[in-house]
Every structure is written in structure tokens, then in C-alpha cells.
Write a structure and sequence with these properties.
This protein is mainly α. The protein is 56% helix and 0% strand. The chain has 3 helices and no strands. It is elongated, with a radius of gyration of 16 Å. It starts with 14 loop residues before the first helix and ends with a helix.
Length: 95
């Protein structure tokens, strides 16, 4: 039985900003990102990792292999958020 859950952001209307951030971060990582469909970068990431992720049903894929794709994208985004926060804190503490 397949159950699809969609995480919702706490801030209403933040989806566009998060998607734009994802597109920017993944573009800097060297992936081709369609600015109109930034979520589609997952297929390019999957291909680079050797995961045969395709639009539609991917029930044959293991949770582990799909997790590698999400981890690559999410991990890259988190690292960038931390870098930006550290940069902001450093500027705040400058005399």
C-alpha cells in the first residue's frame, strides 16, 4: 500500500521562496534547473546517483535509493542555510 504524504511549510505562502532557494542551490551545485519547475531537479540528481527515478509510479525503488536523492537535495539546502546564517551572524558581530 502506497501512502503519499506532503509536508507543509509552517509559513503560508513560503512554498515559492523555498522552491526558488532549491533551484538556486542546486544550480550552484551544477545541476540544470528549470526555474518554472525547480522540483524536477530531483530527476537529474537521481540520474547522477544512478537511481532510476521517473515521473509517476516508482514503487519498485527502495526507500534507501530514493532517500539518497532527497538527502542530496535536502542536505545541500541545509548546508547552504547554515552557511548563510553564519555569514549573517558574522556581519552582525563586526564593529
Amino acid at each position: 500500500m502506497s501512502r503519499r504524504s506532503r509536508r507543509r511549510l509552517v509559513v503560508p505562502g513560503a512554498e515559492q521562496g523555498v522552491e526558488a532557494f532549491k533551484a538556486d542551490v542546486m544550480k550552484r551545485e551544477g545541476y540544470a534547473v528549470n526555474p518554472n519547475r525547480p522540483d524536477d531537479v530531483k530527476y537529474e540528481v537521481a540520474k547522477s546517483l544512478g537511481v532510476p527515478l521517473q515521473p509517476g509510479d516508482n514503487g519498485q525503488l527502495s526507500t534507501e535509493s530514493v532517500g539518497h536523492v532527497g538527502g542530496k537535495i535536502g542536505g545541500t539546502m541545509v548546508r547552504e542555510m547554515i552557511r548563510l546564517a553564519q555569514e549573517k551572524l558574522a556581519k552582525r558581530s563586526e564593529p
